[in-house]
Structure formats: structure tokens, C-alpha cells
Amino acid sequence: MWPEHGINYDGILHQANEAQILAKRTRNTVEVARPKSSPEEPLPGFGLSLGAQQFAVLLNERSESALSCDPILDASVVVEALGVPAEEVALAADELDQKGWVVLHKSMGMGATGFSSISPDRRLFLATDFVLRGWNPEADARELAKKIAMKGDFQAAGSAELCEALGWSPRRLNPAADILVCGDFAKSTGQVHGVPHVHNTLVCTPRTRRMPQGHNLRVRFRGHCLTVHFTRSLDCPSLGASNDINDPSKLASYFFRMGAD
Q: What is the pLDDT of residues 143-190, one digit of tens each?
């Protein structure tokens, strides 16, 4: 037995202790698979029509930095990109607007689309990056908090510096930074014009070092509250009722739930 599990009694005891620590850390957690995107349903689980899903995908894919003004698309560009009539674009835009994912810019003579141009709200990236980009902004926020906390309380870390340390692009860093700042788990020194970071620097506070355990992280965006659900060990979002775990159509909506305060 010892050659397989340890060269001596102390080695076996060490491995047993490590296994016990791992079991406690992962207790009451589930492994959540990313909802599978497909042409028939690119954003499963969000309760959107296919047209609205395709519109959200367009905005996500064309964003280079996940800023609220990135991208700003003219109505004619959207109609051409989606390949549907202006009236259908209007319906999809209204769905996304109702969800708080877009900002509609209106003007005289804007036509049947109901807007002259459109841009994403940053909530769109928080909700859809997990499915469309392959990273989880909630998990990234925890990693980002750990990196900022290494600076010490009330010390600042530059976003460019954090991108380099984590190996992330600004496009990936920005949603995670939004979660920390809007959830009051880090302070921001603001945005510098012309720089692809939502927050130029992030300042560590005592709250940065004690990311929430066993309760919800509430993130405020323009009068709405985005709630990220954590398990006790912070290894994955909680899924509410246990019978929902086996329903792939419900997984995505549990990562980010929004409602008006």
C-alpha cells in the first residue's frame, strides 16, 4: 500500500490530511458546466427570443474592451449584420433594453428600428461573457481581488499592471473589475480617457480581502441590482433548488440575476 499512497506513515498521513481539507473546501458545491451555445440558441437560459440573442451576441463579439460605449452601432449596421427587417430589429432591441443590457440612442427620423444607434450596457458583458467568451466574470472577480489584496490595504494596483500579472486582456479584466467596484469590494480611481480600462487603478480595502462567503454579492448598476450567487467555498455559483442543477436551460440565468431595487 505504501508505495502507491506514500513512502511511509507520515507521507500517508499528509495525503489523508490534504484530502480532508479538499473535502471540506468543496462541500455543498456543484461543478457547473458552461451552457452550450449553438446557432439555434446562442444564449440559452436567458429567456430571450432568437433575434434578441443574436443581437446580444453581435454586441458582445464587436466589443474590444467591454466599455459601455464599445461598440456604438448605427441602426443600418445592425440591420445589415443581423440580416432581418428593421421591424424585427426593433423587437429584439426592445427586449434587450427591457433587460437593461443596452442603451438606445434616439433621434428624429430614426426609422422603424426605434433607435438611430445602440450601445451595450456593461451588464450585458457580465451576463453573457460566461457563455460567449469562455471566462466567468464572477470567478475572475475573485482572482482579481486576490491579486489586488497582495498590495495591502489602501494601496492601488493599475489595471494595465493587473492585466500583465494575470495574463488577461482589458476586455476580460473590465467586467471583473466592475463586479468588485460596483459591489464595493474595491475602490476605483476612475477612468482615463483613451485608455481601454473601465477603472484606471483599483484600490485594496479590508473588504477586498474578505470577499463574501456563503451569501450573495450585490452589484449596483444604474438603479438595478445584479446579484451574483456564491457557495460557501466560493468554488461556483449556487443553483438554488437542487432539481435545477440537472436542467441545462436554467444554468446561465443563475450566474447573474437582475431585478429593480
A: 999 999 988 888 889 999 999 999 999 999 999 999 899 888 999 888
CA dihedral 245, 249, 250, 255 (to 10 degrees): 100
Distance from the first to the final alpha carbon of the chain: 59
d(CA 26, CA 32): 13
Specify the number of domains making up the chain. 2
Q: Write down the residue that cell numbers 441602426 correspond to.
A: 75
Same domain assignment for residues 141 and 251: yes
Amino acid at 253: S
Identify whether 206 is preceded by a cis peptide bond (ω within 30 of 0).
Answer: no
Instruction: Record the pTM.
Output: 0.70
Supply the range of the domain harboring residue 85.
50-127
CA distances from 50 to 6, 37, 95, 121, 254 (A): 55, 12, 11, 20, 20
